[in-house]
Specification:
This is Nicotinate phosphoribosyltransferase. One of its GO terms (molecular function) is nicotinate phosphoribosyltransferase activity. Pathway: Cofactor biosynthesis; NAD(+) biosynthesis; nicotinate D-ribonucleotide from nicotinate: step 1/1. The protein has 462 residues and is of the alpha/beta class. The protein contains 16 helices and 19 strands. The strands form 4 sheets. The protein has a 7-stranded antiparallel sheet. Strands 7-6-11-10-9-8 form a 6-stranded parallel sheet. A 4-stranded mixed sheet has the order 16-14-15-19. A hairpin with a 6-residue loop joins strand 14 and strand 15. Helix 5 packs parallel to helix 12 and helix 9 crosses helix 10. It is elongated and about 90 Å long. The N and C termini lie far apart (58 Å).
Length: 462
Amino acid sequence: MSDAATTDLYEVTMALSYLRERMTQPATFSCFVRDLPPGRAFLVAAGLESALDFLAGFHVGAADIDTFAETLRRPAADLAPLRDLRFTGEVRAVPEGHVVLAGEPLLEITAPLPQAQLVETFVLNQLSHQTAIAAKCARCVIAARGHPVVDFSLRRTHGTAAGYQAARLGAMAGFAGTSNVAAARAEHLTAVGTMAHSYIEAFEDEEAAFTAFARSHPGPVTFLVDTYDTESGVAVAARVLRDLGRTDGSAIRLDSGDLGALAVRARAVLDEAGLPGVRIVASGGLDEFALDDLTAAGAPIDVYAVGTRIGVSADAPYLDSAYKLVEYDGRPVMKLSSAKVTAPGRKQVFRRPGCADVIGLADEPPPADGVPLLETVMRDGVRTGPPGRLPDAARRLAADLAQLPETARSIRSPTPVRASFSGPLTDLAARVRHRIEHRVRGAATPPGDGRRPAPQPPRHTP
């Protein structure tokens, strides 16, 4: 069974019906976030690379057919039209790292309708989760006000794959390192880590634990000082570091309590011991709100380690994302459901100064001060270039954050930037709405009202 079976059942039933009805003309689906979560003024495009990897390898094999048939309780022969289905379409997308706003397409897929439908679940999963985490990480970097931030999230993310993604997305946002060894190795990140309270508890006392740790690890070390009494732990750490001559680049870590007040006292102890170069690392339930408070108060903390609340985007754990059909066989389509109206047609996002974006049609010329964001990244089911590089995504994000209005960068009660629709897109939406409403009104006309002949009952012969 391949990742093609990692899908919602209705994708399978729709794709099968399309194939049986010979509805295989090109369809365009647009993936976007309807509304931003509370407390968010922007999002960060992410997840594209894993989505493209999935599409490039998409293939419905025999094992997938068996899985579909068993799930539907139907003979495998009924699912035969899906056999050997591959993705042969085009993907246009916002490159990872760009700031994106509500309603803006993160990605648009154009492919034969059954293909474009069947890949929806996996693509939407990758973009939704990673875009949410990337935005959370970016807000941490903003709140840290230039202090290094590192990722400690792996042990509490919702699965190890999510932990890997959090480490990668943290690096995209500007994190200085991660505790995730596999992610550090694969993504060429700086691996960071200290010790757990259990390590301290395993020894007779803190001095023995610190000394043993330093013996095992040459170079700078970081001692966890709050296992028993924080101020006492800081004093012991200072003594061990000084006696061993291991002060350059070394640090202590605070993991509980009033981190701001404890950092002030710890800094005083270290300075009095002649160790001004020993840094203070803070961890323990931190997120952008805590970082904002600590940095605004001038807490003498050098490095912030964030974990649980970042790896799951605790205050905004999901996005109101959607993957909607916007064109089929050259015909623009839209949805008119209450509070879920979609815009028809293939689209482009034009980035203007200050992220005052315009959402327009894919084939319309950009505004004089607008730069198109969506790029063609896959054609005929094959990437148009090499995979995106993480440093490039990081540079895009830093540049976009720099041009966001200060009110959008605020950690508390930020003001979202709103994208506007272009004139051609607005006109198309009006025409398509009119066409649909006219058709719906016609279909709802009661029989015999003069607009169309009333259907006659069938004649029965004796």
